[in-house]
Design a protein that fits this description.
Number of strands of chain B: 0
Structural class of chain A: mainly alpha
CATH superfamily of chain B: MetI-like
Oligomer: heterodimer
CATH topology of chain B: MetI-like fold
Largest sheet of chain A: none
Radius of gyration of chain A: 24 Å
Distance between the termini of chain B: 52 Å
Strand content of chain A: under 5%
Order of helices and strands of chain B: HHHHHHHHHHHHH
Structural class of chain B: mainly alpha
Largest interface: A-B, 50 and 43 residues
Number of strands of chain A: 0
CATH class of chain B: Mainly Alpha
Helix content of chain A: over 70%
Shape of chain A: flat
Radius of gyration of chain B: 24 Å
Chain lengths: 307, 294
């Protein structure tokens, strides 16, 4: 197992390096002079630009600049925000807990609804319940999160007056964004669980369990569900990615001070160091989350050999 | 010395060619049928928008501000007095364009890269798949956001951004299927008679791996419509006053309390279009690739 983990981490090294090169090049890929981008809208003379270029080391060869950037990243220095001058890593770490809170709550909602609906649909295969459940799943998949969020606000804040429409810091303010995000991935999860359950239910060992006269509940929970949920782990990474993109939208709609909203604002304000730093942070986090999921998958399914 | 064998095929089999049989299966799939009809309505709405409605999608009429739906304005009017139905109809043009163009871009580049990687193997495969891994390191629409940040905010860049960010799906799938197809005898036979590599890829490999790719591309159009509108919703895509569904939702959210119609209709338009395309995708999957049936 440890060997598998080390192998998987080593395999990720080239990806991580290439990601860092791409993120580093971002500033150079943007049309225009990086020094001018750093100075923003301010009026500048050519001499001032030259000073900035010198200070930023933009006159040095590109590979030297990259190595310098990499060394800084290794030390946890992602530069300073062009907008407020604060360290980028600090900004990310301040916002991260809000996004994590939202993502975890959404993942919980999505798992409960998705797995629940998937199981019911599979057990009532080819009945009206199955059809309705799958129609709902299709609606969930087809509904953009930025619209479902608005509908939730209309229902729970404007009509029923149960929940505050925006903000963060309390449970009642977390419910709507988490629900909107959770429903987004619940649909695809329900479809996957249903098809996976149906496949397991047709296996010989289920027939054996039935012929032994085992109780239906025992067959479902002990024999079917444990095997049917294994493929769900494979899409966890995808779900996490989906939730993270969804967080960009829900945080903007519900005015939550999370990573997603910060990212959009950084793009809109042309705060490129913040964009660069956040992109690198999220991409690296995503690579490692996927490795963790791979390891978890091997751990949960003993049929897979980790050599 | 030659023996002839008379085959007693059922009359129906003799009557229909394989392509006709496939067409019949399409016709019998309820999903494909419903999806196609709904999508056709949206396409007609997009094409004939100037004929269906006489209102201007961008012209401001302050005296008609936030009128609820009535006989004159069936979807009501927005904050600038513009007819919401007209804007939804014109918006269909943009969203369908974003969906189709970005998927065409993604599929063309992705499938080409995937076939090349799968066919040649070795270092070419390694280089291409490493690049794909790097793209996959950016979750969801993050890569599209990065590209928009680099290229600038407008609708063309949204199409490019959404297109590029979906390349990995097609590349991985095309590569995997190419690997299984290239070992089949007819590819070896084509190589043996000296067929050019490009021709082998285009004539012998592509047609044999295309079925699952069509399914993915169909669902991809739905995803691209959602992502495209999301970028415009965030202010990173099409810019006001363009009649785009994402912009309409974003502008309308300021009036959720007074004017539900401003956000409801563009929201419904996105959901219905995406649902129709997803239904088509599901139906196509059942017909073309029954192994993937849900």
């Amino acid at each position: 197992m440890t060997r598998y983990l080390i192998n998987r981490l080593l395999q990720a090294v080239p990806t991580v390096l290439l990601v860092s090169i791409l993120v580093f090049l971002m500033l150079h890929l943007i049309p225009g002079d990086p020094a001018e981008i750093f100075l923003g809208e301010r009026q500048t003379s050519p001499e001032q630009l030259e000073i900035v270029r010198e200070q930023m080391g933009l006159n040095r060869p590109l590979h030297v600049q990259y190595l310098d950037y990499l060394a800084n990243v290794m030390r946890g220095n992602l530069g300073n925000s062009l907008n407020n001058g604060r360290p980028v890593l600090g900004e990310i770490l301040t916002r991260l807990p809000h996004t994590l809170e939202l993502t975890i709550a959404a993942l919980a909602i999505s798992t409960i609804i998705g797995i629940g609906v998937g199981i019911i649909a599979a057990l009532r295969h080819n009945t009206i319940i199955d059809t309705v459940a799958m129609m709902l799943a299709l609606v969930g998949i087809s509904m953009p999160v930025y619209w479902s969020s608005l509908l939730l606000i209309v229902l729970f804040s404007i009509n029923l007056r149960w929940l505050p429409p925006i903000g963060q810091g309390s449970l009642d303010r977390l419910i709507m964004p988490a629900l909107a995000l959770g429903l987004l991935s619940a649909g695809s999860l329900a479809r996957l669980v249903r098809s996976s359950m149906l496949e397991v239910l047709s296996q010989d060992y289920i027939l054996t369990a039935r012929s032994k006269g085992l109780h239906q509940r025992r067959i479902i929970f002990r024999h079917t569900l444990r095997n049917a949920l294994i493929p769900v782990i494979t899409i966890l990474g995808l779900t996490f990615g989906q939730l993270l993109s969804g967080a960009v939208l829900t945080e903007t709609i519900f005015a939550r001070l999370g990573l997603g909203r910060m990212y959009v604002e950084a793009i809109l304000n042309k705060d490129f160091t913040l964009v660069q730093g956040t992109t690198l942070f999220v991409a690296l986090a995503y690579v490692f989350i996927n490795i963790a999921i791979d390891v978890l998958y091997v751990y949960v399914d003993p049929r897979i050999k980790y050599d | 010395m030659t023996d002839t064998v008379r085959l007693n095929l059922p009359a129906s089999a003799a009557r229909h060619s394989p392509s006709r049989r496939l067409l019949l299966r399409f016709g019998r799939s309820l999903n494909v049928l419903v999806g196609t009809i709904v999508l056709a309505i949206m396409v007609l709405l997009a094409i004939f928008a100037p004929v269906i409605t006489t209102y201007d999608p961008v012209q401001i009429t302050p005296q008609l501000r936030l009128r609820p739906p009535d006989a004159e304005h069936i979807f009501g009017t927005d904050d600038f007095g513009r007819d919401v139905f007209t804007r939804v109809a014109y918006g269909a043009r943009l969203s369908l364009q974003v969906g189709i163009i970005s998927v065409t871009l993604a599929a063309t580049i992705g499938v080409t890269l995937g076939i090349i990687a799968g066919f040649y193997g070795g270092w070419i495969d390694s280089v291409i798949m490493r690049l794909i891994d790097v793209m996959l390191a950016f979750p969801g629409i993050l890569l599209a956001l990065v590209i928009v940040a680099i290229l600038g905010r407008d609708l063309t860049n949204v199409m490019i951004a959404v297109g590029i960010s979906s390349i990995p799906v097609y590349a991985r799938m095309a590569r995997g299927n190419t690997l299984s197809v290239k070992s089949i005898d007819y590819v070896a036979a084509a190589q043996a008679i000296g067929a050019p590599t490009g021709r082998i890829m285009a004539v012998h490999i592509l047609p044999n791996i295309i079925a699952p790719l069509i399914v993915v591309a169909t669902n991809g159009v739905a995803g691209a419509i959602i992502s495209g509108a999301a970028l415009s919703f965030l202010g990173l895509g099409a810019q006001p006053p363009t009649p785009e569904w994402g912009i309409m939702l974003s502008e309308g959210r300021l009036y959720l309390r007074q004017a539900w119609w401003v956000t409801t209709f563009p929201g419904l338009a996105i959901m219905i279009t995406v649902m129709a395309i997803n239904l088509m995708g599901d139906g196509l999957r059942d017909i073309l690739d029954p192994r993937l049936r849900l």
